[in-house]
Amino acid sequence: MVLKELIKLPISVSKEKSIDIYKQLAKTNLVIGKMDTHITRSFINDTFLNLLSFNESVQSTRIEGTQVTFHDFMENKNKKEMDWQNKEVSNYHEALMYGVDQIQNHHMPISTRLLRRIHSILMEDARGTSSASGEFRKIQNFIGPNNKIEDAVYIPIPPNEINSYMENLEFFINGENHYSFDIDKKDSEEYFPYDASPLLKMAIAHAQFESIHPFLDGNGRLGRILLVLVSVKESLVSSPIFFVSEELEKERIRYYNSLNSTRGQKPDWSTWLLFFLQASERMANNIIQKLLSAEQLATTGMDNCETDMQKNIWLATFTNPIATAKEISSFLNIHPATAKRGLDFLVTKNMLDRDDSKKRNQKYYNYDLIRAIQN
Hints:
mainly alpha
């Protein structure tokens, strides 16, 4: 049966189910704290965070159907012209970093104005681009397996209600009280207000945004960017490094099903909250393992280097795991010949692989690092 209705925030679950949610929340927060400590103390944290942001961009767009891998995008991200799939990943990364910068460095609230601007970046020259980029939809849309509304699994709110629902969501995200939060509360229910725990606020904001579905296209991608923005605003971690799309992509159907459970007259929020918290715990553990692998690789590689320049070039490949000598020379501000000598040395040590099918503009691949990030 198609779901049509959406209840405004705040949400509630039964007291009994809230116990499981709070238990999982404590477990997840503990692992995220460990992850944050590992990254803060790491000597490669800046380059690692940069690679994670690229991987997040890849994984989030894969949820929407692209086939681009982390390796694919690393190889194509500097091209002036790219196919639509790589373009979507590139737009996602630009939109993500723009949003993070606005909140972290300019102290902007997460407003409909900001989300519209991010949406316009997300949709620039991409699939689904239209005059409505950055603008809320003016027509009814629906979520389903095809383009027939009769087969829809969910029909979002009508266009004339979007502003009201987005205002309710905006106040919730920014931790401000709003008249729409004044509801009759049941003693048997546990409510999650606008000052809820950061992880719970992330989960609630994401699901509610997805259900409002305010744009004609790009709602899923923008909704996952919103997860990161809320984590930054709520200072969940020291840096904007908690990206969860990789874990959501692994269980895409469960992700969609649990989101759908939050809709209708009798929403089941506990299923979604538990799924998101468990996915976040797995992702935090995954990020720790990625970091440990990358650190071990960096340390072992530096031990194999004979000069400081070789070490610098080796570490430069942690920012550019697929690069030419020209790109490394530009990054380090050194002569291209110096960069090429250093890269060729790393090839002789089996630390990098070189594409010998070309005589000019040869690419060098740090496959071990790519594998560490993809795993």
